[in-house]
Amino acid sequence: MKPALKISLFAGYAVLVIVLFKGIKVFEKEAKEAFFTFITKRLVAQSSHVPVDKCITGIYKPELPYSFAPLEELEDTLGKKFTLISFYQAWGEKPEHSFQPVLMDEVLKKGRVPMLTWEPWVTDFTAPHLKPLSKREYRYLQDIADGVYDFFIQEWAKAAVQWGKPFFLRFAHEMTNTQYPWSLVNDNRPEDYIRAWWHVRSVFDSLGARNVIWVWCPYGTDVLKYYPGDKFVDWVAIDIFNYGELLADDGEGMRWMSFDQLASPIYREISVLKKPVMVAEAGCSDIGGSREVWYREMLDQIAKKFTSIKAVIFFDDPSDRTSGKWVIDWSIENSPEVRSEIREVLKSEHFGFIENYHQLLSASKKE
Amino acid sequence: MESTLEIVKPQAGTPEHPLDKLRRPGEREFHNCLPHAGLWQKICIWVLFTIGIEAVLYYADWWFTPAHRRNLAFFIFLSFAVFYQVFRSVINWFYFLFIKGTPFIEAPAGKTADVFTTAMPGEPYEMFEKTLTAIAAIRYPHESYLLDGGNDPKLKELCARLDVNHLDCSKVKGAKAGKVNYALSRSIGEFVLVIDPDHIAEPDFLDRVLGQFQDPEVGFVQVVQAYYNQDESFVARAGAEQTYGFYGPTMMGMNGLETPVVIGANCTFRREALKSINGHAVDLAEDLLTAMRLHAKGWKSVYIPERLSFGLNPADLHSYFKQQLKWSTGMFTVFFRDYFRHFKDLRFNQKLHYFFAGTYYFEGLASAITCILPVLFLFFGLWAVEMDFREFLIHVTPYALVTFSMGWFIQRWYRHPSEKGFLWRGMFLKKGTWPIYLLSFLYFVTGTKVPYFPTPKTAEKGVFTNLVLPHLAVIVLSIAAIIYCLLTSVRFVTGTKLMIFFALSNIVLMAPTVIIAHASLFRRKKAGAL
For the range B13-18, what are the long-range contacts, defined as Cβ-Cβ under 8 Å and sequence gap of 24 or more? Predict the structure, then answer.
């Protein structure tokens, strides 16, 4: 072989190697994730949870879990106790953003189980390696998936694992609700959402987390493309609000909708998943119809029609400002009529307070 | 192309050949298997090699991300250590690209050949009985010489009985090579075969080899060195395992690159070639140096991947370490002293090859660094790198997979079916020899002379705790560092897991050598129990 031929063959090979490498770098993320799912799908145990034949109840109140006194008063009038205590925590680097074992313990001390909604807001971080605020939120679920926020997630997850008692974790809920930055408002795509979910979950799994019950909560319809997969999700949740005619003057034709009307479309979609369903937020405004009827129908239909619903959480916020210009009173506490209706329906065997639910959950920790 | 072998059967009336009991089943038949790499095999190797390069790039690209760097000096050390190993793998793969067998050429009749073997005082008589019987039994007409450094009357008597010329070399300076040069001056054969005193040659040794010298440019022909004592001990087995790949695919690759080297034993030289470099080189690494000088003079070399002689491997740790110390010191000397001297006379392939060979024993330095750095980190928080352990696994896995696949694939060129398998003994022993390689490097750097000692052939029984003190230190320090880190865990941060992983793997890699060094203890206890 002539030297010139040899050199050109060698150069050709070198170019091939480099081009291949560039190609690999392009597909690296996808390949890595595929590989990682391949592994995790085998390593992550099939989720288990206490089989709930009844429907447990839960409640969100703004003062929970700091103060239990108002809750206990309400429960006295309802004659039943709530099993799940729902509260919210955002991402961030301030002390209140870290995992709160003391608060979580408070919930357990009261014989309840925490249902924590974990919201991935990222504008509160100041770490130097993050993108500038102006660009930070663009498709940032990818960054979460790529481990950019691991410094925070890991710390939080470690504390949660260290705490060690079972709790529900509803991460990045309502990913289809453009009110939230983790929705498509920042061009986040379903695949970004799923990768982010996998990544967050993998951080917990790699720390050996067995106390976290993962709640996946879509919003609206056409949501299954956001589903991370059976192995990564324990409960599927839906949020059901009847705004009544509250926003009708926006000309959008808002009207009074029953729980059945609101829940049926998404329930039909998610019932293919064969997961226990939770109504993670349920609320009815008082404009355009009868709240007590709405709540009674809701509970009736959960018992009879929507039998996969194994938990329902009342959204008991007397002054919800999240809808923009309106302050909405969702509370059942402030309405004696609603309270007495609910009291009647909750007498049913179907809605039980499970006294030792968190011990049951502990006993059935994921293998 | 077809090489055919006649299977040698002992004929009635002829004395028993020493190899009759030592050959493995299928020993001779196997020579005909897979002497070449076929087209598909070539393609497989090229594909594996390319995937391997990509895997290495992938690993390196990630490793050298600036975000991973902490203390710059430590980072350089650790990167050297980690990527030295990667570099060695790539070199190995590189050789496999050129795998080439050597077609058999009928030995021309009427040539003259001399067969030399050397004796040193203290070497066992029984060994020479076998060696000389086998040399005398080589069928191609030849003159046999025993180059006796002790002028032993018993050996004289043996030579007389076997019709071997006995040369008194007791006054000859220099070890083996000195005697060979002396014998060269006392003999006239056109070809010279130098056989190590522990090696038992096949009767058709010269018939298989001499044909290659039909090409007037061929200066020497090397064959496989096989061992018949691998069942004697763990060390003997491990030492043999280390040679399987070398005498199979690696040397066949060198054959394709036209750079097979002299291994010390069983090399057949053209007398004219040796003369052109003023005789066999006299040095610690006399074999490699001789090969380099011959190559620099323009002689070609041929490798015949056939097991034509069977020798002894060091059977205990002490002898093994002595052998390795000699080889590695010799290699460093040749690399730093002679490589650059002959550089301009070597062909491109040979330049490359002698560079690869000469840097082989940096292993010791690299291992020392990988042993020390995790301990420093775990105790004192002295950071070389800070990497996520899971990411590390993800990036190192493709490389590891290619290494294993390649290792598996090239086993088809091993020179006997019994050699195939997962050669963990050889791997652990090589990892456990790092203090020796480091020592020879330090010897060289500090300019201390290593006294020449012939490779010991007899197993010295005993406990060698003093030989494995570095290993014990690594194990104890690593365990202590891990416990310390787990207990304090003040900074149980991103990089800690990786360092614990390194420390754990060091413990696993060092432990077998410590056990081997005390193997006789276990054996004695066992015997006591019985």
Answer: B15/B133, B15/B137, B17/B133, B17/B134, B17/B137, B17/B203, B18/B130, B18/B131, B18/B133, B18/B134, B18/B200
**What is the interface pTM, i.e. ipTM, of the complex?**
0.75
Amino acid at B282: V
Supply the pLDDT for residue A221.
Answer: 85
Q: pTM of the full predicted structure?
A: 0.66
Predicted confidence (pLDDT) per residue in B98-118, tens digit:
998 888 889 999 999 999 999
Residue A119: strand pairing partners: A90
Whether A23 and chain B come into contact, CB under 8 Å, resolves to: no
- Give the mean model confidence (pLDDT) for residues B122-130: 91
- Domain spans of chain A? 50-363
Q: Say which CATH class B113-327 falls into.
A: alpha beta
How many cross-chain Cβ pairs, A to B, lie less than 8 Å apart? 23
3-state secondary structure B344-380: HHCCHHHHHHHHHHHCHHHHHHHHHHHHHHHHHHHHH
Query: Are B406 and B96 within 8 A, CB to CB?
Result: yes
Chain B nearest-CA distance from A127, in A, is 14
Angstroms from A107 CA to nearest CA on chain B: 30
Which residues of B sit within 8 Å Cβ distance of A?
A: 50, 53-54, 57-58, 61, 67, 388, 390-391, 394
3-state secondary structure B469-527: HHHHHHHHHHHHHHHHHHHHCCCCCCCHHHHHHHHHHHHHHHHHHHHHHCHHHHHHHHH
8 Å CB contact of A17 and B54 = yes
Per-residue pLDDT of B206-217, as tens digits, reads 999 999 999 999
* Residues in chain A, pLDDT under 70: 1, 29, 32-33, 35-52, 247-253, 324-325, 363-367
Model confidence over B444-486: pLDDT tens digits?
Answer: 888 777 665 554 444 445 677 888 899 999 999 999 999 988 8
Domain span(s) for CATH 3.90.550.10 in chain B: 113-327
- Contact present, B147 and B118 (Cβ < 8 Å): yes
Interface contact flag, B50 A16, Cβ < 8 Å = yes
Q: Which residues of B touch A147 (CB under 8 A)?
A: 388, 391
Q: Which CATH number among 3.30.70.2190, 3.20.20.80, 3.40.50.150, 1.10.3980.10 corresponds to the domain A50-363?
A: 3.20.20.80
CB A71 within 8 A of CB A82: yes
Look at residue B272 and tell me whether its pLDDT is greater than 90.
yes
Answer whether A147 touches B (CB < 8 Å).
yes
What's the burial of B405, exposed, middle or buried (CB within 10 Å: 0-12/13-18/19+)? middle
SS3 state of residue A304: helix
The reported pLDDT for the residue numbered A254 is 76
Contact B54 A24 (CB under 8 A): yes
Residue listed under structure tokens 């614990």: B500
Residue with the bigger pLDDT between B156 and B527: it is B156
Which is more confident, B46 or A325? B46
> Is the pLDDT reported for residue B508 higher than 90?
yes
Q: How many CB atoms lie within 10 A of CB B132?
A: 27
B167, two tokens: 């040369």
pLDDT(B403) > 90: yes
Which of A352 and B441 is assigned the larger pLDDT?
A: B441
Q: How far is CA A149 from CA A62, A125, A200, A210, B64, in A?
A: 28, 9, 9, 22, 21
**CB nearest to A20's CB, from B54, B390, B394:** B54
Residue of A6, A28, A151, A200 for testing the chain B interface, max B β-carbons within 10 Å: A28
Residue A47 has what pLDDT? Answer: 44
Using a CB-CB cut-off of 8 Å, the residues of chain B touching A36 are 394
> Which residue from A minimizes the CA distance to B53?
A17
Distance between CA atoms of residues B287 and B303, nearest Å: 15
